[in-house]
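Predict the 3D structure for this chain.
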Amino acid sequence: MSPSRPFILRPVATSLLMAAILLAGIVAYKQLPVSALPEVDYPTIQVLTFYPGASPDVMATAITAPLERQFGQVPGLSQMTSTSSGGSSVITLQFSLDLNIDVAEQEVQAAINAAQSVLPSDLPTPPIYSKTNPADAPVMTLALTSNTIPLTQVEDLADTRLAQKISQLPGVGLVSISGGQKPAVRIQVNPTALASYGINLEDVRSALQATSVNQAKGNFDGPHQSYQINANDQLLTSKDYRPIVVAYNNGAPVMLSDVASVVDGAENVKQAAWMNKAGSPSGQPRWGASVPAVIVNIQRQPGANIIQVVDSIKTLLPQPQTTLPPTIQLSVSTDRTITIRASVKDVQFSLMLTVALVVMVIFLFLRNLSATIIPSVAVPLSLVGTLAVMYLFGYSLNNLTLMALTISTGFVVDDAVVMIENIVRYIEEGEKPMQAALKGAEQIGFTIVSLTISLIAVLIPLLFMGDIVGRLFREFAITLSVTILISAVVSLTLTPMMCSRLLRAKSEAKQGRFYRASENVFKRIIDFYGETLGWVLKFRVVTLLVAAATLIITVWLYFIVPKGFFPVQDTGVIQGISEASQTIAFPAMAEKQQALAQVILKDPAVESLSSFIGVDGTNTTLNSGRILINLKPIAERKINATDLMRRLQPELNKVDGITLYMQPVQDLTVEDRVSRTQYQYSLEDPMRTS
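Done. Predicted structure below.
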């Protein structure tokens, strides 16, 4: 019995079944997330420890090595890298793909707790971990500036009112504040004055520590009332610190202001950040003008959807922005979702264009409006039905899944055309449409099933590929397989049912001008094919030699064509890592960093940039900095990111004493190390131990 027979005889039930598939696909389309690529990031956690004043050797032996010994026992750990610099230790832990990052987080926290006993007792703060990949560029960068409020207050407001709220959003891995303008009281002791009073530096430190405290003061209890002593001895401003008595000399008190300079300032004066905008519109700085700013970099958790994270941030921003003073300007410096949304829209347009072209080609060859309507319904229905399965599997609308839908359009229409052609053949022989549909569907049903199985079998190896490549192409293979499978179902049910209702026999004499004109063209094409086929069969040896040569050239081209994991993307953002001499002073580093920004902003393809220097976890040394370059839309700059970097490099090389390494930001980040170049390698010495 033909599998299509019940559906041909029951058109209402078949129509309702197809309507259900269509409705499920439409609802799923509204719920599907959008992303650039399938989420295949390795679970990665970064552990950051600060120990001010410690040399790199001390950081490596006292901080990094004890932590590494504990992290080495964490199950599922596949790779561990560390960087120890002056006062900073950064350890990056990469876990296997099948490990949940929340489980890895618990293991890392337990390892940090176990290492607390062997870490230095005077460590200011315990190690801090974040679920983020340091090699992944921020998904969004915010810049806060003010012409009237000091940056120390701006940073304090950004930390307490902005960063904490953003950190609570799902998918946010790390919110880091660059610029280092955290408010503090700076006490600069005069050694000469200390010596004249017979006081050492330890006396000053002890006096400060004993004076500024926040401890329990007790309470007064009486028979009728009880009073809690609510006194706070913490000192918050330089004015409060100046009258502190640090010692007595000949019975006279020696105040802190007598031996030191006490000022309100920043906790770390060797950190700075700037934002720059190209052009000179009204109210905006000209190119080259650096605006001191507090930069808020937001990184996502590995595996989180970029667009969902950025959308949640944009939804949240108006709320904390209302709590900021009106003199603070908050602007979005970098938004990586702009190019992602544009690329997905381009692929969606290509998909719609492909469907339209397929329908047009079908009409040109069938030359029958009724016959064209049938595949015009079958193709979109198969694609829309696939969206429902994608939603059930937890997939997203990304470039790979949309490419699978685009490619499948050719396979989908094949099933419908094969079924229609076989039914039309019987109608032209004089059969009634219902009988032609039953007979044609019965004959071609097995062919469609076998074609479907063979096409899906080709994709099976992709389903069993391991590691990140398998994860990357699994969504592609499953989406394509599901589309082909739904296409077979539609071709065996809806297509023959519509053929039995819409197709009618029509003699050639009753056909229109277009049919007769195109028929002559098709006959000439067939005649030409017959002539060329006869020539090929006449010279069979030559034909076989050409086929063999084609095979050999194909194999040869396979070996010489450049190969790579993934093509370099142009996401509209370039990340730069600046590096100067190790002996450079902070003011000189700041000057050279701004000189690089001036050169970059002169290029007409650059829209804006943000840059920062100083040891803050992102930069591990004082002689390094970061620049995030935002490019204009590709239609305006008319040059890709790679060519732009080649154009900028000669001008950047003219800035003496500093080098800028640039890389275009990619949507897919495999490594967990920040590289200055496209390629990196590691040197290992089995004889060297920590």
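The mean pLDDT is 86.
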